[in-house]
């Protein structure tokens, strides 16, 4: 099997996870978890979002979290933004990396925003300009590039059109986000190979939700196609407000454990992440979707059966 020698993981639980929780964590608790994630070895972490606080009250204090943690050398702390107002909030609180998002579903985008996905992306030009003028790096995400609950499989031409719109406004770091959890490995492998070949100027992130238990298989398929950057969420926390029945992102500890066992370097300490997931479970007071948290590491079993 052709696997990379190392991968980069972005922890998205503080944003994609917590935004779907009824319990709103305090700023102190978020800062504690964020510092724990940095200590565990993460070099990329999605801290929160600059959405309207009425729309996403769980993320209302993202600015405050940034101010409290400050710049951490060698660690990219990114935030999701909806528009130019988000860039302004990033400037004001010292955030140095923002991410925009568009849905690849034409029906979804037309219904919610009355625009095609490409028109949405073209509208991001002002964000790119403002970010560049203030030393903020910017990336773009495409949600549901594999399939959506409204239109089924997403045509590759539609994904190409969105990628080209991103490149046109000057965004070259692009995330393919299976928010609906409908992607399957052969489709993932094909789309990853396609974009790597067609857009060598771009860099890629993959973001899989584990709604139908396919996330780890999809990560493997993407790795085999040559992808090396993946989002995951501690404790498998999360969901998607637009997608019926959506489960959280693939659990970070499951991905790190798999990589450890396969000899793929992540730079992240799985034991520390498991401890943080247990802390998260206590804070949120419910069980989490994580195999390794339930079963322990494979290497912890060896020898224990004979005792
Ligand atoms: Zn997500």
Give a quick summary of the entry.
43% of the residues lie in helices and 16% in strands. The chain is α/β, with parallel strands linked by helices. The strands form two sheets. Strands 1-2-3-4-5-8-9-10 form an eight-stranded parallel beta barrel, surrounded by seven helices. The protein has a two-stranded antiparallel sheet with strand order 6-7.
Question: How would you portray this structure in words?
Answer:
Helices cover 43% and strands 16% of the residues. With 307 residues, it is an alpha/beta fold. It has a single domain, classed as Aldolase class I (TIM Barrel, Alpha-Beta Barrel), CATH 3.20.20.70. The strands form two sheets. Strands 1-2-3-4-5-8-9-10 form an eight-stranded parallel β-barrel, surrounded by seven helices. A two-stranded antiparallel ribbon has the order 6-7. Strand 6 and strand 7 form a beta hairpin. The longest helix is centred in the C-terminal third of the chain and has 15 residues, at 270-284. 46% of the residues are buried. The protein binds zinc ion (ZN). Zinc ion (ZN) binds at residues 16, 177, 179, 207, 209, 249.
Task: Itemize the secondary structure elements and their pairings.
Blueprint: E1 8-11, H1 13-17, H2 27-40, E2 44-49, H3 62-69, E3 76-80, H4 84-93, E4 97-103, H5 106-113, H6 117-122, H7 125-133, E5 137-143, E6 147-148, E7 152-153, H8 156-168, E8 173-178, H9 185-198, E9 203-208, H10 215-225, E10 229-232, H11 252-262, H12 270-284, H13 291-295, H14 298-301
Parallel strand pairs: 1-2, 1-10, 2-3, 3-4, 4-5, 5-8, 8-9, 9-10
Antiparallel strand pairs: 6-7
Helix pairs in contact: 2-3, 2-12, 3-4, 4-7, 9-10, 11-12
This protein binds zinc ion (ZN).
